[in-house]
Design goal:
It is globular, with a radius of gyration of 26 Å. By secondary structure, it is an all-alpha fold. A two-stranded antiparallel sheet has the order 1-2. It contains 16 helices and two strands. Helix 3 runs antiparallel to helix 15 and helix 6 packs antiparallel against helix 7. The chain folds into two domains: 176 residues, no CATH class; 106 residues, no CATH class. The chain binds ligand LARV2P2M and adenosine-3'-5'-diphosphate.
């Protein structure tokens, strides 16, 4: 296989991003919302989006480029999908994914340290028990449900304590009512109850019971997944790139429409005003929107329609590039804000070894 400039880009993008992220993390401290829309709806469902966009491109560009065949493309996709599945998902409910096996084999476990067990006289929630208020609250609810489900009659002490915490959190009280037990005794009680009922060997199961993963070496699932996704999309772009560029250049009509309708929409009818000075409330927004003359509204709808058609139907390569950029951005954020360097490297390496082989040997 010859080493083109594109190949160098394909093989170096993720490792270089990790390096840059590490360097940036020395100077910048990032607070990232784990429950933000990008992470929740896109990255965490990333293999779905990547498969959809990847396959859609293959179908729309009439197959698989000069070098590819259906069989080869399918083989590459199948290898990457199986590897993603084995590494990050449970094959069946009791089996742990490979990344969680590494974690538990290196001393990690699911913890239920709900209460702060330092010797403060007032009861409080352990700072490490999940990172945000809403996550704590939902984890407490899961924990309570698990305790209730696990035993027909949970010890009264346990039951009282857990319902008390739920109340404490929702009411935002400063301390717990004193029980005849210490915080660390209660932590152990909860911990041993759950661990004796179930073999908690995956992060998914741990989270679903309200616990959190601590200790051990936890290869970054995000870095693993994003590396696999970037390499798949960029790897397949090699096969369809030339054809996609040719198609992109033939759509002069769309650019003309964009210019005409776009200028009309922006210069007339107060639309620009609406964008430049958005009203404070939704109600005012819709009221002002209603004041836009109907023909401008129609042109706006036409513009949105033709843009959607231009991207989704005629030039899905735009989607491929957008998604690749989105994944790359999330990779950078992950390398700056999450995990240790070694956990990032192991996530990267596990994806890279297989994706590297696929795009080195199977193209
Ligand atoms: C000749 C062949 C023609 C085929 C034509 C196909 C037509 C196109 C249709 C394609 C449909 C898409 C199918 C996709 C199948 C899926 O992948 S569905 C599952 C999606 N799931 C995900 O994406 C989950 C990804 N998330 C994770 O792996 C983990 O959450 C994580 C990011 C690794 C994090 O793990 P934590 O434990 O939370 O840290
Ligand atoms: N780019 C990103 N944006 C937001 N959250 C991210 C992120 N990368 C990683 N995370 C979060 O960091 C944690 C560790 O990720 P991972 O082990 O998959 O690399 C996960 O938390 P949760 O699992 O609690 O959602 C994940 O959601």
């Amino acid at each position: 296989m010859e080493l083109s400039l594109y190949k160098i880009f394909l093989f170096s993008l993720c490792p270089l991003t990790l390096l840059v992220g590490q360097l940036v993390s020395f100077r910048v401290h990032l607070e990232v919302d784990k429950d933000g829309w990008l992470n929740t709806y896109f990255v965490k469902q990333g293999w779905f989006w990547t498969s959809l966009v990847g396959w859609w491109c293959m179908i729309r560009y009439g197959g698989f480029g000069p070098r590819g065949t259906w069989k080869r493309t399918l083989l590459r996709y199948a290898i990457l999908t199986v590897w993603w599945f084995v590494f990050t998902q449970s094959l069946w409910s009791e089996a742990a994914p490979l990344m969680d096996m590494v974690f538990t084999a290196t001393g990690g476990r699911c913890s239920f340290e709900v209460f702060d067990s330092s010797d403060s006289p007032t009861w409080s929630i352990n700072e490490k028990f999940h990172d945000t208020f809403s996550r704590r609250q939902s984890s407490l609810q899961k924990l309570y449900a698990a305790l209730k489900k696990g035993a027909q009659n949970p010890p009264t002490l346990l039951q009282n304590a857990v319902s008390e915490i739920g109340y404490w959190i929702s009411e935002g009280k400063g301390h717990l009512r004193g029980e005849d037990v210490t915080p660390s005794q209660l932590n152990s009680l909860i911990d041993s109850a759950l661990h004796s009922w179930k073999k908690i060997n995956s992060s998914y199961l741990c989270r679903s019971l309200g616990g959190y993963w601590i200790g051990g070496h936890d290869p970054s699932g995000h870095i693993f997944l994003i590396t696999l996704m970037c390499m798949f999309l960029l790897g397949e772009l090699q096969a369809i790139g030339k054809r996609a560029l040719r198609v992109l250049k033939t759509h002069n009509r769309y650019w003309q429409q964009l210019r005409e309708h776009g200028t009309n929409v922006l210069t007339m009818g107060g639309f620009w005003n609406l964008v430049a000075h958005p009203p404070a409330t939704k109600k005012q927004f819709f009221k002002q929107l209603g004041l836009i003359p109907p023909n401008i509204g129609l042109q706006l709808i036409q513009l949105i329609g033709s843009t959607a058609r231009f991207i989704v139907w005629d030039n899905p390569v735009v989607l491929l590039v957008l998604f690749t950029f989105l994944w790359w951005w999330s990779l950078l954020i992950t390398t700056i804000a999450f995990h240790t360097l070694w956990e990032q490297l192991s996530g990267l390496l596990c994806a890279y070894v297989v994706a590297g082989f696929v795009y080195w040997k199977l193209v």
